[in-house]
Amino acid sequence: MSDPNIDPIPPSLDPGEQVLAEESSRIDEQDSWVRKYSIFVSLLLTSAIIALAFLALRQGTETSFKIRLTEAIFGLIALIILFNVYTVRQEILIKRLRSQLAEKHSQFYTLRNLSMMDSLTGLYNRRFAEQRLAAEVARSERNGQPLGVLLLDLSNFKQINETYTRAAGDQVLQDFAARLTRVIRGSDLAVRLEADEFLILLPECTADQLKRVLGRLSPLEVDWHGQKIPVTFTAAWKQYELGERPEDFLARAELALTAAKHTIKSPHVETLTL
Predict the structure, then answer these.
(1) What is the CATH number of domain 126-260?
(2) Which of 40, 99, 147, 273 is most buried, by the most CB atoms less than 10 A from its CB?
(3) What residues does each domain of the chain span?
(4) Read out DSSP for the chain?
(5) Does the global pTM surpass 0.70?
């Protein structure tokens, strides 16, 4: 992945996330209500005890009346104790609910992150790339900063699988993904789109900066049981045009990659065999 400091999953409209947020809000409301009600009742009962005690002092020495007031005061004290016990039980329940909700949150985000990761290379997958691309397009629209997309297609990948076995092909993908992760900036995003096709999302990146990224990607050789497998690729890049929809932007870049595989050079396509 490109940068551990970047939030791996941006805010979304995932229904599961909304349910967790609503459940958390309900627990917060319940906790707030218990605290406020506890303070109110405790103050009310304490005030009643003080009033009765003050009344007892004002009633002279009449024994029977003082006994009744004393019983009332002890009764109120007993109510305060019982209510505090009830409040403590409610706080324990709320704490347990918070713990269960935290576990749900952890499981939810773990599963969602896994659903947006490529298990072989550790890069993000196409699903996440489309979400991140939409967010970066919106940001580029707001601030007018450049936004580039670089597509990379490994050359002769099928032949690598056939010649060196599928396991060797997997090693090539993993090593290439690791190289991508090392050469990009912290603000960039490396993605595995398809079997042998990769994407790098490059916010605020000029054409010259993009060429430097390409230059750092090569040369690359994968050591497979003592054999050196040269890794080559075709690259195509496009800059975002204001007003363009994210899906159209990505489609335009994919068309450029297809064209790059069949042409040596065009004005807006960088084709490299390294």
Answers:
(1) 3.30.70.270
(2) 147
(3) 15-115, 126-260
(4) ---TTS-SS-----HHHHHHHHHHHHHHHHHHHHHHHHHHHHHHHHHHHHHHHHHHHHTTT-HHHHHHHHHHHHHHHHHHHHHHHHHHHHHHHHHHHHHHHHHHHHHHHHHHHHHTB-TTT-SB-HHHHHHHHHHHHHHHHHH---EEEEEEEETTHHHHHHHH-HHHHHHHHHHHHHHHHHHS-TT-EEEE-SSSEEEEEEET--HHHHHHHHHHT---EEEETTEEEE--EEEEEEE--TT--HHHHHHHHHHHHHHHTT-S-BTTB-----
(5) no
